[in-house]
Amino acid sequence: MKYLLKSLIITLIVQNSFAQVNTETLRGTSSKKEYKSKAKFDFGYEKSKDEIFDILFTLRSDYSIPDNLHSFVILNYQNGYKSDQNEKNIIMNKGFGHLRLTKKLFFNLNIEFFSQVGFNDFLSIKERKLYGTGLRTTIIERDKVKSYFGTGMMKEYEVYDIKYNSIQLLNRLTNYLTMNIRFNDNISFKNISYYQPSIINRNDFRVLVDNEIKFKINNRSSINMTINYRFDNEPHENIGKSYFQINNGFELEF
Protein backbone atom coordinates (compact mmCIF):
# COMPACT_ATOMS: atom_id res chain seq x y z
CA MET A 1 0.00 0.00 0.00
CA LYS A 2 2.82 2.42 0.82
CA TYR A 3 4.38 1.73 -2.58
CA LEU A 4 1.11 2.44 -4.38
CA LEU A 5 0.66 5.72 -2.51
CA LYS A 6 4.26 6.68 -3.26
CA SER A 7 3.70 6.01 -6.98
CA LEU A 8 0.75 8.38 -7.05
CA ILE A 9 2.66 11.11 -5.22
CA ILE A 10 5.62 10.90 -7.63
CA THR A 11 3.25 11.69 -10.48
CA LEU A 12 2.56 15.08 -8.94
CA ILE A 13 6.23 16.09 -8.92
CA VAL A 14 7.30 14.58 -12.26
CA GLN A 15 5.83 17.46 -14.26
CA ASN A 16 9.12 19.25 -14.73
CA SER A 17 11.42 16.23 -14.86
CA PHE A 18 11.39 13.39 -17.40
CA ALA A 19 8.04 13.00 -18.49
CA GLN A 20 4.56 4.34 -24.75
CA VAL A 21 2.17 6.51 -26.80
CA ASN A 22 1.06 9.68 -25.04
CA THR A 23 -2.60 9.92 -26.08
CA GLU A 24 -3.33 12.70 -23.61
CA THR A 25 -1.61 15.09 -26.05
CA LEU A 26 -4.23 14.14 -28.64
CA ARG A 27 -7.25 14.77 -26.45
CA GLY A 28 -9.68 17.43 -27.69
CA THR A 29 -12.04 19.66 -25.74
CA SER A 30 -15.39 21.15 -26.66
CA SER A 31 -17.94 23.43 -25.00
CA LYS A 32 -20.83 22.18 -27.14
CA LYS A 33 -22.29 18.91 -28.34
CA GLU A 34 -20.47 18.02 -31.52
CA TYR A 35 -18.57 15.50 -33.61
CA LYS A 36 -15.32 16.61 -35.22
CA SER A 37 -12.18 15.15 -36.75
CA LYS A 38 -8.58 16.24 -37.23
CA ALA A 39 -5.81 15.09 -39.53
CA LYS A 40 -2.20 15.78 -38.61
CA PHE A 41 0.99 15.42 -40.64
CA ASP A 42 4.43 15.45 -38.97
CA PHE A 43 8.00 15.31 -40.19
CA GLY A 44 10.26 13.97 -37.47
CA TYR A 45 13.71 13.14 -36.19
CA GLU A 46 14.34 10.52 -33.49
CA LYS A 47 17.46 9.70 -31.52
CA SER A 48 17.98 6.59 -29.39
CA LYS A 49 20.62 4.01 -30.28
CA ASP A 50 19.99 4.92 -33.92
CA GLU A 51 18.81 7.94 -35.89
CA ILE A 52 15.52 8.01 -37.78
CA PHE A 53 14.03 10.51 -40.20
CA ASP A 54 10.31 9.89 -40.63
CA ILE A 55 6.85 10.99 -41.68
CA LEU A 56 3.84 10.57 -39.40
CA PHE A 57 0.10 10.71 -40.04
CA THR A 58 -2.55 10.92 -37.30
CA LEU A 59 -6.33 10.91 -37.66
CA ARG A 60 -8.54 11.64 -34.63
CA SER A 61 -12.32 11.77 -34.27
CA ASP A 62 -14.03 13.23 -31.19
CA TYR A 63 -17.60 13.10 -29.94
CA SER A 64 -18.51 15.43 -27.07
CA ILE A 65 -21.52 16.13 -24.87
CA PRO A 66 -20.58 19.05 -22.57
CA ASP A 67 -20.40 18.21 -18.84
CA ASN A 68 -21.33 14.59 -19.51
CA LEU A 69 -19.41 12.52 -22.05
CA HIS A 70 -16.32 12.68 -24.26
CA SER A 71 -15.03 9.90 -26.50
CA PHE A 72 -12.30 9.80 -29.12
CA VAL A 73 -10.68 7.38 -31.54
CA ILE A 74 -7.12 7.84 -32.80
CA LEU A 75 -5.42 6.10 -35.72
CA ASN A 76 -1.70 6.73 -36.11
CA TYR A 77 0.86 5.46 -38.63
CA GLN A 78 4.53 6.35 -38.99
CA ASN A 79 7.02 5.36 -41.68
CA GLY A 80 10.68 6.25 -41.64
CA TYR A 81 14.30 5.50 -42.48
CA LYS A 82 16.94 4.43 -40.00
CA SER A 83 20.57 5.51 -40.20
CA ASP A 84 23.40 3.93 -38.20
CA GLN A 85 27.06 3.08 -38.70
CA ASN A 86 26.44 -0.15 -40.60
CA GLU A 87 23.45 0.53 -42.83
CA LYS A 88 21.13 3.30 -43.99
CA ASN A 89 17.67 3.84 -45.44
CA ILE A 90 16.01 0.88 -43.74
CA ILE A 91 12.26 1.47 -43.66
CA MET A 92 10.79 1.50 -40.15
CA ASN A 93 7.10 1.11 -39.34
CA LYS A 94 5.04 1.84 -36.27
CA GLY A 95 1.43 2.61 -35.55
CA PHE A 96 -1.41 2.32 -33.09
CA GLY A 97 -5.15 2.64 -32.64
CA HIS A 98 -6.59 4.06 -29.42
CA LEU A 99 -10.16 4.32 -28.07
CA ARG A 100 -11.02 6.31 -24.93
CA LEU A 101 -14.31 7.12 -23.23
CA THR A 102 -14.61 9.72 -20.44
CA LYS A 103 -17.85 10.01 -18.43
CA LYS A 104 -18.54 12.65 -15.82
CA LEU A 105 -19.41 11.33 -12.36
CA PHE A 106 -19.89 14.53 -10.36
CA PHE A 107 -18.30 17.96 -9.94
CA ASN A 108 -14.79 17.75 -11.49
CA LEU A 109 -14.43 13.98 -11.25
CA ASN A 110 -14.63 11.77 -14.35
CA ILE A 111 -14.19 8.05 -15.00
CA GLU A 112 -12.25 6.84 -18.06
CA PHE A 113 -12.10 3.59 -20.01
CA PHE A 114 -9.49 2.99 -22.71
CA SER A 115 -8.08 0.35 -25.05
CA GLN A 116 -5.14 0.36 -27.46
CA VAL A 117 -3.35 -1.84 -30.00
CA GLY A 118 -0.12 -1.08 -31.79
CA PHE A 119 3.39 -1.97 -32.93
CA ASN A 120 6.77 -0.22 -32.96
CA ASP A 121 9.73 -1.59 -34.95
CA PHE A 122 12.03 1.05 -33.48
CA LEU A 123 11.49 -0.41 -29.98
CA SER A 124 11.30 -4.03 -31.30
CA ILE A 125 7.62 -4.27 -30.31
CA LYS A 126 5.86 -6.61 -32.77
CA GLU A 127 2.51 -6.36 -31.01
CA ARG A 128 1.16 -4.36 -28.09
CA LYS A 129 -2.31 -4.48 -26.57
CA LEU A 130 -3.63 -2.79 -23.46
CA TYR A 131 -6.84 -1.85 -21.72
CA GLY A 132 -7.62 -0.09 -18.48
CA THR A 133 -9.67 2.36 -16.49
CA GLY A 134 -9.07 5.30 -14.20
CA LEU A 135 -10.22 8.63 -12.77
CA ARG A 136 -9.59 12.12 -14.12
CA THR A 137 -10.02 15.40 -12.26
CA THR A 138 -9.59 19.10 -12.98
CA ILE A 139 -6.87 20.99 -11.11
CA ILE A 140 -7.13 24.36 -12.87
CA GLU A 141 -9.66 25.39 -15.50
CA ARG A 142 -9.41 29.02 -16.50
CA ASP A 143 -9.59 30.88 -19.78
CA LYS A 144 -5.84 30.68 -20.53
CA VAL A 145 -4.62 27.93 -18.19
CA LYS A 146 -6.02 24.41 -17.79
CA SER A 147 -4.54 21.53 -15.81
CA TYR A 148 -5.78 17.96 -15.26
CA PHE A 149 -4.67 14.94 -13.26
CA GLY A 150 -5.49 11.32 -14.03
CA THR A 151 -4.73 8.03 -12.33
CA GLY A 152 -5.72 4.45 -13.03
CA MET A 153 -4.65 0.90 -13.79
CA MET A 154 -4.03 -0.97 -17.03
CA LYS A 155 -3.13 -4.45 -18.24
CA GLU A 156 -0.70 -4.64 -21.14
CA TYR A 157 0.39 -7.49 -23.40
CA GLU A 158 3.58 -7.05 -25.45
CA VAL A 159 5.32 -9.30 -27.99
CA TYR A 160 8.93 -8.31 -28.71
CA ASP A 161 11.10 -9.10 -31.71
CA ILE A 162 13.92 -10.43 -29.50
CA LYS A 163 15.43 -13.84 -28.70
CA TYR A 164 14.58 -14.18 -24.99
CA ASN A 165 11.54 -13.14 -22.93
CA SER A 166 9.72 -12.13 -26.10
CA ILE A 167 6.27 -12.01 -24.45
CA GLN A 168 5.34 -9.95 -21.41
CA LEU A 169 2.04 -9.55 -19.58
CA LEU A 170 2.06 -6.76 -17.01
CA ASN A 171 -0.24 -4.81 -14.72
CA ARG A 172 0.70 -1.14 -14.36
CA LEU A 173 -0.47 2.03 -12.73
CA THR A 174 -0.89 4.83 -15.24
CA ASN A 175 -0.80 8.41 -14.00
CA TYR A 176 -0.59 11.70 -15.84
CA LEU A 177 -0.49 15.43 -15.22
CA THR A 178 -1.25 17.86 -18.01
CA MET A 179 -0.88 21.64 -18.35
CA ASN A 180 -2.35 23.67 -21.23
CA ILE A 181 -1.43 27.36 -21.62
CA ARG A 182 -2.96 29.66 -24.23
CA PHE A 183 -0.73 32.70 -24.61
CA ASN A 184 -3.07 34.40 -27.09
CA ASP A 185 -5.58 33.48 -29.80
CA ASN A 186 -2.83 32.09 -32.05
CA ILE A 187 -0.18 30.52 -29.79
CA SER A 188 -0.64 27.74 -27.22
CA PHE A 189 1.59 25.37 -25.24
CA LYS A 190 0.86 21.92 -23.84
CA ASN A 191 2.91 19.81 -21.43
CA ILE A 192 1.93 16.27 -20.37
CA SER A 193 3.82 13.93 -18.06
CA TYR A 194 3.13 10.23 -17.55
CA TYR A 195 4.42 7.93 -14.80
CA GLN A 196 3.69 4.22 -15.32
CA PRO A 197 5.14 1.84 -12.69
CA SER A 198 4.63 -1.90 -12.53
CA ILE A 199 2.39 -2.86 -9.61
CA ILE A 200 4.67 -5.70 -8.46
CA ASN A 201 8.14 -4.37 -9.33
CA ARG A 202 9.08 -0.86 -8.21
CA ASN A 203 12.18 -0.85 -10.44
CA ASP A 204 10.08 -1.38 -13.57
CA PHE A 205 8.65 2.02 -14.48
CA ARG A 206 8.27 4.34 -17.46
CA VAL A 207 8.30 8.11 -17.54
CA LEU A 208 7.13 10.14 -20.53
CA VAL A 209 7.21 13.88 -21.17
CA ASP A 210 5.52 15.53 -24.17
CA ASN A 211 5.81 19.24 -24.96
CA GLU A 212 3.94 20.86 -27.85
CA ILE A 213 3.77 24.44 -29.04
CA LYS A 214 1.08 25.24 -31.61
CA PHE A 215 0.78 28.22 -33.95
CA LYS A 216 -2.72 28.75 -35.32
CA ILE A 217 -3.00 29.72 -38.99
CA ASN A 218 -6.81 29.98 -39.11
CA ASN A 219 -9.86 28.28 -37.58
CA ARG A 220 -9.13 25.06 -39.47
CA SER A 221 -5.36 24.71 -39.57
CA SER A 222 -2.20 25.14 -37.49
CA ILE A 223 1.48 24.26 -37.41
CA ASN A 224 3.16 22.72 -34.38
CA MET A 225 6.43 21.53 -32.91
CA THR A 226 6.64 18.68 -30.38
CA ILE A 227 9.53 17.48 -28.23
CA ASN A 228 8.97 14.09 -26.58
CA TYR A 229 11.04 12.08 -24.13
CA ARG A 230 10.53 8.48 -23.00
CA PHE A 231 12.45 6.73 -20.21
CA ASP A 232 12.09 3.00 -19.45
CA ASN A 233 14.04 1.91 -16.38
CA GLU A 234 13.90 -1.78 -17.36
CA PRO A 235 13.94 -1.96 -21.17
CA HIS A 236 13.75 -5.29 -22.94
CA GLU A 237 17.01 -6.88 -24.15
CA ASN A 238 19.72 -4.34 -25.14
CA ILE A 239 17.44 -1.47 -26.16
CA GLY A 240 18.45 1.81 -24.54
CA LYS A 241 16.52 3.30 -21.63
CA SER A 242 16.02 6.71 -23.27
CA TYR A 243 13.91 7.57 -26.31
CA PHE A 244 13.94 11.09 -27.74
CA GLN A 245 11.77 12.51 -30.52
CA ILE A 246 11.34 15.89 -32.25
CA ASN A 247 8.49 16.53 -34.73
CA ASN A 248 7.33 19.46 -36.80
CA GLY A 249 3.88 19.19 -38.30
CA PHE A 250 0.75 20.59 -39.86
CA GLU A 251 -2.76 20.00 -38.47
CA LEU A 252 -6.07 20.31 -40.34
CA GLU A 253 -9.48 20.23 -38.62
CA PHE A 254 -12.62 19.20 -40.50
Q: In a few lines, what is going on in this structure?
A:
This protein is mainly β.
How are the secondary structure elements laid out?
Elements: H1 2-13, E1 34-47, E2 51-65, E3 69-83, E4 88-106, E5 109-120, E6 125-141, E7 145-160, E8 167-182, E9 187-197, E10 205-216, E11 221-232, E12 242-253
Report on the architecture of this protein.
By secondary structure, the protein is mainly β. The chain is built from one helix and twelve strands. It is globular, with a radius of gyration of 18 Å.
Number of helices: 1
Structural class call reads mainly beta
What ranges have pLDDT less than 50 throughout 5 or more consecutive residues? 1-20
Shape: globular
CATH architecture, by name, is Beta Barrel
How far apart the termini lie comes to: 47 Å
CATH fold-level label = Porin
- The radius of gyration is 18 Å
Number of strands: 12
Taking the sheet with the most strands, its summary is: 12 strands, antiparallel, barrel
CATH evolutionary superfamily: monomeric porin ompg
Rounded mean pLDDT is 80
- Estimate percent helicity: under 10%
What percentage of amino acids are in beta strands?
over 45%
CATH class: Mainly Beta
* Spatial strand order of the main sheet: 1-2-3-4-5-6-7-8-9-10-11-12
H and E string: HEEEEEEEEEEEE
Number of domains: 1
